[in-house]
Amino acid sequence: MIFCLYDSTGIQNYIFSSNKLKEIVGGSELIRKMFKEFLIDAIKNCNFKYSDDYKDNMMDTDVRIIYIGGGNAALLYKDKNIMKKVNEEFSTILLKNATSIGYVTAYCEIDIDKDDFKEKRNELLNKLEQKKNMNFRGTRLLGLPITKPSANNEYPAICSFTEDNREIYISTETKCKRDILRDNNQFNNFNYNGEKYEFPMELDELGQSEGENYIGIVHIDGNNMGHEIDKFLSEFDDFTEGMKAMRELSTEVDRAYKLFFDDMVKKLIKDIKTEKLKFLELKNNTLPIRPVIMEGDDITFICNGKLALGLAVNILKSINKKNSVKIRNYEIPISACAGVAIVKSHFPIDRAYRIAENCCSSAKRKGKFLKGENETVGNWIDFHIVNSGMTNELDEMRAKIYNLGLKDPSLTSFSGDNKLPQYNLLYRPWCIMDEGKYSWGNFEKIFEGFKNWPKSKLMNLRDAFLEGREEVVDFMIEARSKKFDVCEIDDVSYESLFDVYDMTPYYDVIEAFDYYIEI
Question: How large is the average pLDDT for residues 100-111?
Answer without folding.
Answer: 90
